[in-house]
Structures are given as C-alpha cells and as structure tokens.
C-alpha cells in the first residue's frame, strides 16, 4: 500500500535527515561541488540542508497551510538536483548552467517512474513542485531579463508566486556569499514588482482569452490591451507519451473532427518509427494546411513532447486563424508499460524512458486553451 507523501513528511516534522534518507538522489548531492565564490558553505548537499533548515526559521512558514509547507519543503529539497548532470568546470570556474530546467525535468521523471510507486503524489502537486524548481532562480535574475514583466507573468501562470519568493529567499539564506544583503534586496523587489503588476497573489487577469494567448505567444502586446479575437475554428493538438490514451480520447470525444495522426501516416507509407520522421511531418503539415485553408477543425495526433515542436505547430495553426487547444493525456508509468506489453507494435522500454527523460511538460500559457486529463479511464 502506498504511503501518503504529505502525511509522511508532516509526521517527520520536516526533519531533513529522515526525509532526505528516503531519496537517494539527495544523498548523491554530496559528490557535487559548488563555486566557492557563490557557495562558501560547500557542496550541494550542505547547501540543500541549509536551505531546508532556513525554511523552518522563516516567519512566513507559520502562515502556510500544511499542503503549502510540504510543497515548498519538497521544492527546497530537490531544487538543485539538476546540478548533478549540469555541473562542470568552465574557464577554471565551477558552473551549473540550466540546472533549474534540468532539475525540474529530473524531478518529474523520478516521481513518475519511481516515487509514485511508493507514495501517493497527485499530478497537481508534482507539477507545482517541478515549476518551483524550474523557476527558483527567477527572483534573483528577473531584472536582468529583457522581457521583465513577461517573465513574471509567465511564472505566475505555473505556480504560487509567494512560494517562489520564499524558496528563493531560503535558497540565498542557505549559502555563504559576500553580496547576500544586496541579493536579498533583489528578492524583495521581485515580490514588490510582482504585486505592482498584479501577478503575485494570483494569475494575471487579461481582458479576454485571445489577448492572453497573443501576449504569451507573440510578446509584442501590452498585458493590459484588449485584442479583437480573429479566430474562427478550433485545432486540437494532443500531447502525451505513447500509449497514454490519446487515440481513445479522440475516439470518445473528438470523433466529429478530422484527425491527422502521424502514426497512421507512418503506416500508410510503411515508415518505421525508428526512421527519419521529417518526411512524415511534412506530409502531415501539408494535410493540415488543406484543412486550415478551408477553416475546418481537426486534431493533430502525435506525442508532441518537446515545447519547441508545440510552439511551431501553434504558430502555424494560429496564423490561419485557428484557436489552438492543447490536450495533455497521462496515465501512471506502470499502466504505460502494461499497455506496451500487449501492443502489436510495442515501443522499446528504453525509448519510452528516454522520452520521459526529455519531456517538456505542457504549460498553461502555450495555447489558446490547455486541458489536462490524468489517470482518466483506468
């Protein structure tokens, strides 16, 4: 029987050692060095322990609900696991580029394949923690970014900005560096500026759905604008791993629409999934353009696990006046593997695991609309 992750951590009274011992990846952080210029405290494990300890000292900690405490604590515990694969020596300095993005992916992968077999962890909780890991450096760096307001508003779509603010604060308090006071001021400014533009306590409100879509997908309008909605038909883009249930969802809910399936096109042209897929994508896009010119709704059925791929599809379809809706489908890992065993053309487990490793989770701002269906029909 699975343990309730929330109860387990609360019962351990947020004791770092007893919690960390349940996750081998945290113990692996002992082997990962850090640049002493920014982390005089030592390796990543020491830093992580410091961060978790500092969390319990915050005055704001007492104001959080138990659920918020567990989410924030786990985000602090796992926030630097990306450094395991990213840390290297560059020009004589220890650096860990993109460790936050890779850390979020690694956390999701660990939960999906491993931790979900032992603990009850719901999809929403997993994704909130992953988002905090992904964006944990934003409060310190947001003023250096070109699209300052855009980056804050985008982050607020994915997570609780107050939890992000607290995570960033303890991330700084848990390290030894010479400019700590100056950096703490930056984090406070992150909070103040997010409140000022209206995205700290909740997601940013837009004048209509189309304005929201244009803001996130073109970045060339002001968030306070009201853009006239020129869309006239819908295109649905499916997102999910092989065997997650995308085809079943289409049959049960979208049978009234044309379907462009990359798997069906491969079979039509007798092309193996292992072969180059560029020709298949070209055929699929040509068919899509026929429907787009006629303003006819259709479904684009493929895994679409890479965010760049989804962005290109969204740009193409929306340029014809389509409302692009992304639909994400997920089932537990064990169910995925069970289905694969009885499939006529099974996918090698190594390939499935590699796709999970590379997966860019769909984010709510990517399309005109996004919908998530997790563990439905099992």
Automatic annotation (TrEMBL):
In this protein, which residues make up the domain named HD?
Answer: 45-150
Q: Which organism is it from?
A: Clostridium beijerinckii (strain ATCC 51743 / NCIMB 8052) (Clostridium acetobutylicum)
Name of this chain's protein: PolyA polymerase related protein (HD hydrolase) and P-loop ATP-ase domain
Q: Which Pfam families match?
A: AAA_33, HD
Keyword terms: Hydrolase, Nucleotide-binding
Family matches, as PANTHER family: MULTIFUNCTIONAL CCA PROTEIN (PTHR47545)
This entry's Gene Ontology molecular function terms read: hydrolase activity; nucleotide binding
């Amino acid at each position: 029987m699975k343990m309730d992750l929330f109860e387990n951590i609360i019962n351990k009274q947020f004791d770092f050692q007893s919690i960390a011992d349940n996750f081998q990846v945290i113990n692996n952080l002992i082997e990962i060095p850090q640049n002493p210029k920014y982390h005089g405290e030592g390796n990543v494990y020491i830093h992580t322990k410091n961060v978790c300890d500092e969390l319990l000292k915050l005055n704001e900690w007492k104001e959080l609900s138990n659920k918020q405490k567990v989410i924030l604590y786990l985000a602090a515990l796992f926030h630097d696991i990306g450094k395991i694969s990213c840390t290297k020596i560059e020009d004589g300095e220890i650096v860990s580029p993109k460790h936050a993005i890779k850390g979020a992916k690694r956390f999701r992968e660990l939960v999906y394949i491993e931790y979900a077999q032992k603990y009850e962890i719901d999809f929403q909780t997993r994704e909130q923690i992953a988002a905090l890991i992904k964006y944990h450096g934003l409060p310190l760096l947001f003023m250096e970014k070109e699209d300052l307001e855009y980056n804050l508003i985008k982050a607020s779509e994915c997570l609780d900005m107050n939890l992000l603010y607290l995570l960033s604060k303890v991330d700084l308090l848990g390290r030894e560096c010479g400019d700590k006071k100056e950096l703490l001021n930056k984090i406070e400014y992150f909070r103040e500026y997010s409140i000022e533009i209206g995205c700290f306590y909740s997601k940013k409100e837009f004048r209509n759905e189309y304005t929201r879509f244009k803001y996130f997908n073109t970045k060339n309008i002001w968030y306070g604008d009201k853009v006239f909605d020129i869309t006239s038909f819908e295109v649905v883009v499916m997102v999910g791993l092989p065997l997650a249930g995308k085809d079943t969802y289409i049959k049960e809910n979208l049978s009234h629409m044309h379907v462009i399936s990359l798997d069906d096109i491969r079979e039509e042209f007798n092309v193996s999934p292992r072969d180059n897929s560029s020709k298949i994508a070209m055929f699929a896009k040509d068919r899509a353009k026929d429907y787009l010119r006629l303003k006819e709704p259709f479904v684009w059925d493929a895994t679409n696990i890479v965010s760049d791929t989804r962005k290109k599809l969204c740009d193409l379809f929306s340029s014809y006046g389509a409302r692009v809706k992304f639909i994400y489908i997920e089932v537990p890992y064990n169910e995925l593997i069970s289905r694969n065993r009885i499939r006529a053309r099974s996918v090698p487990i190594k390939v499935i695991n590699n796709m999970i490793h590379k997966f860019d989770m769909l984010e709510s701002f990517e399309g005109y609309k996004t919908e998530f269906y997790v563990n439905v029909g099992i």
